[in-house]
Design brief:
The protein has 424 residues and is an alpha+beta fold. It folds into four domains: 143 residues, Beta Polymerase, domain 2 (2-Layer Sandwich), CATH 3.30.460.10; 131 residues, no CATH class; 61 residues, no CATH class; 43 residues, no CATH class. It has 21 helices and eleven strands. Helix 7 packs parallel to helix 9, helix 16 packs across helix 20 and helix 20 crosses helix 21. It is elongated and about 85 Å long. Bound molecules: adenosine-5'-triphosphate and magnesium ion.
Length: 424
């Protein structure tokens, strides 16, 4: 099948899958977030297809497919360099671990819409249906296909409302992660969370602790790496979700100005640092990143980034003026320094500007901010040194001298090393 004008390969693959299932007598639609996003004129991040074909049948029809969890009835189909999840219409059983349903029963589109979290996420689209039969006042974008709305999702989409499907309290009790999905999706889409849904989230906020830290961490990472991160932070606080998310008590601040200062694509550690500073947590050598590592299931890399930013914030605020040229160069050559400087600038723009100016001047010195070291461990060995505890100290001092333009050649560096003490 050829691509329609402007159609993404993922949409084309999803349409191909629907077409193939139809040709074999099955019912199949686009489902969930991709329909919501198309109606809002946004590019869906992924396409899902829902069908009455069983997973085994889907596998049979699409040789390039794999099962991601047969018990959940989801098959991944590949093509056009993309993947599409094909799920059998289903209704979920009880959620005894508040993580995933104990049982899944294959069922009808109606039941499938009812087991989805929010009305705007419960829409189907028949990509080959009659576009003209859509409600005349569909939200924004003209979509190609016919919308199937079984739970009032179109009206909520039009009104910009995120509403639980069915009884909000019951739907949250099934899976408390939905509280965080509500915050993330409403913030990303610029929607309001409907009142009953918001009240249920707040009433049951403590129950979020029963959800696995991996799932909580994943949602938080998605919130904090999206440009709606400030709205997310304000909503988490307003709904009483800060304590269950972070694992410690924290009063919500009046402003989220560190978060608001970040550019849309700021990396996760920078967002975490901004969030912590907005919450009034300490900079420098603080203990809270270790706590956040546990509660948000941070990777070592993200935790290290956060720690380095906070350390640099402390140094830019308090130590910069007293640092030597070498100390300033070492600090400002660090991977996270610029983020730290931006964050300091939120409350102290004059300092951030001055430190930035100092850094630019240092970058223009002959050796620059981070030159390749004139001397390494191998050079010391070649010069007759025995590897030992003094190595690092000597190399550090030689590098400092290089940063300060006191040694400019390898010979000068070796001479300095020789003068720094007994070999080995
Ligand atoms: P995103 O833009 O973040 O991908 P999405 O709504 O597409 O948002 P997915 O995680 O891709 O989110 O899920 C696809 C669909 O599956 C959702 O639109 C929703 O219908 C359903 N879904 C996902 N997670 C849940 C959940 N925890 N409870 C109920 N339904 C869910
Ligand atoms: Mg999605």
């Amino acid at each position: 099948m050829a691509l329609l004008a402007g159609e993404s390969p993922a949409r084309a693959l999803a349409a191909e899958i629907v077409s193939c299932l139809r040709a074999r007598g099955h019912v199949a639609y686009f489902a969930g977030g991709c329909v919501r996003d198309e109606l809002l004129g946004l590019e869906p991040s992924d396409y899902d297809v829902a069908t009455d074909a069983t997973p085994d049948r889907v596998r049979e029809l699409f040789p390039r497919s794999s099962e991601v969890g047969k018990c959940f009835g989801v098959v991944i189909v590949q093509g056009r360099g993309e993947v599409v999840e094909v799920a059998t219409f289903r209704s979920d059983g009880a959620y005894s671990d508040s993580r995933r349903p104990d049982t899944v029963t294959f069922s009808t589109p109606q039941e499938d819409a009812r087991r989805r979290d929010f009305t705007v996420n419960a829409l189907f689209l028949d990509p080959f249906g009659d576009t003209a039969s859509n409600p005349a006042d569909l939200p924004r974008a003209p979509v190609s296909g016919c919308v199937i709305d079984l739970v009032g999702g179109v009206a909520d989409l039009r009104a910009g409302v995120l509403r639980a499907v069915g009884d909000a309290a019951q739907r949250l009790a099934e899976d408390h992660l939905r509280a965080l999905r509500a915050v993330r999706l409403a913030s990303k889409l610029g929607f309001e969370i409907e009142r009953q849904t918001a009240m249920a989230i707040t009433r049951d906020a403590a129950a979020l602790r029963g959800v696995s830290r991996e799932r909580i961490g994943e949602e938080l990472q998605r919130m904090m790496t999206h440009e709606s991160r400030t709205v997310c932070a304000a909503r988490l606080a307003a709904l009483g979700l800060l304590v269950p998310v972070l694992g410690h008590e924290r009063a919500a601040p009046a402003r989220w100005d560190h978060l608001a200062s970040l550019p849309p694509k700021a990396p996760y550690p920078a967002s975490l640092a901004a969030w912590g500073l907005d919450l009034g947590l300490a900079d420098g050598e603080a203990a809270w990143p270790a706590e956040w590592r546990r509660s948000l299931c941070l990777s070592n890399q993200d935790r290290d980034g956060l720690v380095m930013i906070l350390r640099a914030v402390g140094q830019v605020r308090q130590a910069w003026d007293g640092l030597s040229v070498a100390g300033r160069k070492r600090l400002s050559a660090g991977q996270w320094f610029e983020w730290a400087r931006v964050l300091v600038g939120v409350r102290d723009p004059a300092r951030a500007a001055r430190v930035g100016g100092d850094r630019d001047l240092l970058a223009r010195t002959p050796s620059g901010l981070a030159p390749v070291p004139l001397l390494g461990g191998d050079d010391l060995v070649a010069a007759g040194w025995k590897p030992g505890p003094r190595f690092k100290e000597v190399l550090d001092r030689v590098y400092d001298a290089q940063l300060e333009e006191k040694v400019r050649t390898r010979a000068e560096a070796l001479e300095l090393a020789a003068g720094l003490g007994v070999k080995g």
